[in-house]
Structure formats: structure tokens, C-alpha cells
Amino acid sequence: MKEKLAELLTNIFTTSGHSVSESDTVDLIVKKNDYKTYILLANKPDPAQIRNFADQIPDGTGLYVTMQNMEPELRDYASHVGLITWDRDELALQIGKAVIADLEGNAENLQLVAYNVDSNAASAEDSLFRATGSSGSFEVASDAFTSPVASAKAPAQPAFQGNVQEEKGTFNIWGTSPEMQQASAMGTYQQEERSYIEPPLSTIPEPQQPSWQASQPLPPTLDLRTAPIKLQKERAAMMAKSEIGMPEGVVLKFVPFWNYAYAVKAEHRFKNKVIDISGQGQGCLNALNGNKENLEIYQVTDSVTLPDDNYEIKAKMIDQKEAESTLISNIIEEYTKDVRFNNVVGEAMISEHKLFKPSMDDIRFKMELIYVPIWEVKGARNSVEINAYTQEILTNPVDDDVEFM
What we know:
The chain starts with a helix and ends in an 18-residue tail after the last strand. Strands 9, 10, 11, 13, 16 and 17 form a six-stranded mixed sheet that branches. A five-stranded mixed sheet has the order 1-2-3-4-5, sandwiched between helices. By secondary structure, the protein is of the alpha+beta class. It has two domains: 2-214, no CATH class; 223-387, no CATH class. Helices cover 28% and strands 30% of the residues.
């Protein structure tokens, strides 16, 4: 489903003049007029996934697309963290707009997401459309979040002008009224004190806090040098069913690895021959059991959004000095050459072997400790581990405490 949806979105954005590329962190990256939009496709809307997606956008705008309909509170939450959302209804609307624009021959002028447009030259309705991806998506939310008392006291203001705050270049639902701006700054909503000329208390509805804020607190964030979590908990449990049957528990482990890279350059001369030794590589050394892993880590963050509180951080058993000594010894052994020389002395053929190896000065080496997220899915009799970064089921345990089949 996601592949077909990605292909459809690629066609739509390409037709409207965007350049489309793939990424390791998101599903698609589209660019137009030097403005980037990062697109993440989701099978089911999830607050933790939304927050994690918003935190990983370096620049531009994030577009969260799902084939299911989203609850209004979840759309408000996504907008609050700076994302545009297309759920099932909005996606159908955008596809229809793109098809009509293509038939009319003006697809190049179609604006599917926000661009760097001068806000003073645009109307309030246009500004709202650029921020949400649909016209009027927040009209109801704006009325709900604006205090009737403040509306009665304050002079009329143009819609969303003067009180608009931007987060990552998008419309901020917390900036639609002075009261909400105060709530954003102080963390609580404080209603103005009523005067004798105001209507009775029974006629003034109390402002309602969004349900997602009350029932769905923001997911916790862990400050740790780690690879990102690309595999969600529910998906990991489904992948493990074929190995262990019905899962009985899922825990997220952060396993320490020594991530290293090296380059070798050496040249040896023997008699009239030149022996060249050169190469480069990278890899990971498990800091728990000392095993070398064929694992390449290209993305590292200093913090990670946790799906829940059920996690553990493994302490390293191999320190930096021991890891560096082991890895450099392995590199020297790998690049040692056994060269055979044949010499003719009289009528006799004499063969000679000589070893050439790089020295410490011939090796450029760097290394750092990085944690890799691992899902451990526990069954009735055994467990299976899944790399949450590479999304691969592991054949060898990363921890001696794990009992594999």
C-alpha cells in the first residue's frame, strides 16, 4: 500500500513542478523553488510517530500522509509540532485538485504544500490553506480556542494577523488568540477577569483543553547518542510472530557499539618491486560481547523519542582502549600481504615468501560509542531480536541474556 501511495504522490508532485527524491529517514523529499518538503507515509496515525517525525526535519516542512481519517485532536497536535497532515479525505481532495489542474494545463502553478510566500500579500484564507494543505481546516478549531470574553473586549482584528506564531514555517494553532499566546508561553490558560457589563457566567462556555493534550501526553525523549528508531513497536511484534508465535512482551534495548572507520596507506620496497598496501572500511564492534558486526550506521542523533517507558540502556563491557587495540590488530592482520618471489640461481628455481604489513603510522583510525535500538520480542519459550534501525531480524543475539531458538 505504501509503495503504491509513494508512486502516486511522486507523480502528483512531479507534475506540479517538484523534484522528488528518496531518503533514508523519510519516504519522499520534494523540492520546488529551493523549498523542501519531507513526506512520511503512515499506515495508521500515531502521536509518537508524529512527534518523532517532527523532530527529524532539519529544514523545510514535514507532510504526514495516512490513508486513514485522523481525529481532529490528532490533526491539531500534528499542526502544533509543525507538520502538515493529509488524511484519507484530505488526500482525496489533493489528488482531485492535481488531476483537474493537469487536465486544465496549469499543474505547474499548483501549490500542494507551503512555500516561502510573503504573508503580507496573502489573504488570511490563503495563509491558512498554505499551512494546512486544505482550505478552512482550522476554522472550527479557531472558534473553539478563542475566548468569547476576549472577543467581546478586543477590537476586531483581521483573521490570523498579528497573533500568528510560526513553528517550522507553518500555522500555529496556539497563536490564534491573545489567550492562547499566553497559554503557549505560560503553559496554562488564564481567562481575563470579567467585569460587571459582561453576560452572566452561565452564558459563557469555558474553554476546553484539547483531548490529546489531556489524555495523550507528549512521548518522553531520551538524551543518548543513538541511531534513530525506524521500526515501530507494533510492527516489530508482527515480524516476530513467525519466529516465536504469539508475543508475550516487547522491550526496547539500547545496545552500545563502537562505530569505527579507518584508512590504510602503506608502501614497501623489496629488491626491485614495490608492494602497495591500501584500503579503507568501516564497521561496528559490539561493546557487550566483542563481536564485529557488519553494520553501517549513517544516521546518529543526540536524542531519541521513546515509544513508551519500557526500555533499558545496556552498559558497555568493552572500553575504548580495549576496542581500539582489538580493531587495529584486526586491520593489520587483514592488510598483511604474503608475497612470493621466484629467483633463478643457475639452473635452480628458488622461491621466497616475505610478509609485508602496515604499521600503526600507516593507519588512520577513528571511533565513537553509539547505541543501537534493538527490539527484543519475548515469546513463551524464547525471544527474537530485531534491529530497530535497519529493521532486520538478528540471527545472533547482541546480549548474552537473550535466549534464541
